[in-house]
Design goal:
binds pyridoxal-5'-phosphate; six-stranded mixed β-sheet; five-stranded parallel β-sheet
Length: 495
């Protein structure tokens, strides 16, 4: 199975190389070719999460042995999740919630970022490289801590995280500031997530940095890295399997998935799941007030020229959604000319339009809704008071989208991806439920716990007492230079 750059279909490589590189050298995103082996649904019915993950990833990665994949997966999931199902599926009035936040940092990013370091290490050992892998990562709030957690103290790696100084929740910020590990650096940028992501893409392909740092290999842990995407395919199958086991559906029945989306990585993994045989009817893309994806999926016009709106679901506050590039490449049968022209338009004019034939194809699987702030808060309120289920604002956006969809299509079961613990956003969640504001995130965490009598995830309950280690804040204009300086230091040490 080859991995192909979205900017040049002749630029292909192995999974091993793609995961090490992060971004293709032409600026494209590595995307799996389409001669997939399909998954036999009958085979997966009795598998636990680890066996299922081994089976699914083995069909998508052919340059790792099944044993190697199994070892990576076992190391990633066996002891770092607080639920034996890894991703438990629970009933709600609208359908089912697939809880993706039982990992070490309480957000769905853990699903991929507990595994990525193991995949990278294994890939690297195949290459006999002795350079330091230096991972640069932009975060809108959740990726950063999950990536640090995955790479902290991993030999021959270094991890540098850029996060927007304003916009992330108190708890998310504290998670990053208190990180440990000799190979960790955390920098706040005076800008938003789009600025951080752009800086990372620029730095990874920056010739000055590449020339000055011969002892290091730059890569990324953002979902531009294919190693981030593939682990996310697994839980779509897992949720389906659970519904079959519980006799809620019969094998081969269609289901919908509702996915709270920002960079489009989670939902794109759902599309890959469909390609390899999961009977998905619709992938429902849910956005907050930054509704660029809703508009795009409905009209075929991607227009990032709009005000960036900070919301209470900050991990989805994104205007330039990277993984759409992969979807368009797949939908257009690898039309790299089209991708280049769209991405040039996006860079020059802040917008692009896809041909109607591609839009038709896209709409066969995808549909989209957005949810404003008041609706999001109302959904959190109602879901707690009517169903006794505590959800975070990202999950609420998805549930809001699900309700809109169910006004036009009632019969197909919906699985809603629940992407974070409510305790990562306790101020907004508490306010939504009680109409009372609480001054700090940590006070709100306690209040939410007292009010709902639900457990605070361990990593969050200990957070307040940890010392801050990272307080650096820089202007976005200085970011490339700061990164260059840091990379030179890493390069010097790894000599
Ligand atoms: C990252 C994130 C999202 C958005 O996922 P994408 O893959 O970027 O579309 C949604 N919810 C939470 C809690 C997240 O951390």
């Amino acid at each position: 199975m080859k991995y192909i750059s979205t900017r040049n279909q002749k630029n292909t490589t192995t999974f091993t190389q793609a995961v090490i590189d992060g971004l293709a050298n032409d600026g494209g995103l590595y995307t799996p070719e389409t001669n997939y082996q399909t998954i036999d649904l009958n085979k997966i019915i009795n598998m636990d999460y680890i066996s299922l993950a081994t089976y699914i990833l083995s069909t998508l990665i052919d340059d790792f042995s099944q044993d190697e994949i199994h070892e990576c997966i076992t190391n990633a999931y066996q002891s770092s999740f607080d639920n034996e199902d890894i991703t438990p599926l629970t009933k709600c009035d609208e359908g089912w919630l697939l809880e993706l936040w039982h990992g070490p940092t309480s957000a769905f990013k853990d699903m991929a970022l507990t595994l990525l370091p193991h995949l990278m290490k294994a890939a690297y050992s195949k290459q006999n490289e002795d350079k330091l892998i230096s991972i640069l990562t932009a975060t809108s709030g959740d990726t950063g801590k999950a990536a640090i957690n995955g790479f902290s103290n991993v030999a021959n790696t270094a991890i540098t995280v850029l996060y927007p100084e304003v916009g992330v929740s108190d708890i998310q910020k504290k998670q990053m500031q208190t990180s440990i590990g000799y190979n960790v650096e955390v920098i706040a940028i005076k800008g938003n997530f789009d600025d951080c992501q752009r800086i990372v893409k620029q730095a990874i392909t920056n010739q000055d940095i590449l020339h000055a740092c011969k002892n290091i290999k730059l890569s990324s842990a953002n979902s531009i890295n294919i190693g981030r995407l593939l682990p996310q395919v697994v839980y779509y199958f897992f949720a389906y399997q659970k519904l079959v086991i519980r006799k809620e559906i019969t094998i081969y029945d269609p289901v919908n998935f509702v996915v709270p989306s920002g960079n489009f990585g989670n939902i794109l993994a759902g599309y890959i799941a469909k390609q390899i045989g999961l009977p998905i009817n619709k992938l429902i893309c849910a956005s907050n007030s930054n509704n660029v994806l809703t508009e795009f999926i409905r009209t075929g016009v991607y227009n990032a020229n709009r005000k960036f709106i900070p919301t209470i679901s900050p991990s989805m506050d994104i205007l330039v959604s990277s993984n759409l590039e992969r979807l368009l490449f797949m939908l257009s049968d690898h039309n790299d000319k089209l991708i280049n022209s769209c991405m040039t338009d996006l860079k020059k004019k802040g917008e692009y339009t896809i041909p109607s034939s591609i839009l038709d194809k896209l709409q066969q699987t995808f549909t989209a809704y957005d949810c404003d702030e008041d609706t999001c808060k109302q959904v959190i309120h109602d879901t707690y008071h009517n169903q006794n289920i505590l959800i975070d604002p990202h999950t609420a956006v998805a549930l809001g989208a699900c309700r809109q969809h169910q006004q036009i299509e009632k019969d197909i079961p919906c699985i809603i991806l629940s992407t974070a613990s409510a305790y990562k956003f306790p101020q907004d969640v508490y306010q939504s439920i009680t109409n009372e504001s609480i001054e700090t995130g940590f006070q709100a965490m306690q209040a939410l716990h007292t009010y709902t009598n639900t457990p605070i995830p361990h990593n969050l309950s200990v957070l307040e007492s940890l010392p801050n280690r990272f307080n650096k804040v820089i202007d976005k204009q200085d970011a490339i230079q700061t990164i260059q300086q840091h990379m030179k230091e890493l390069n010097h040490v790894h000599n």
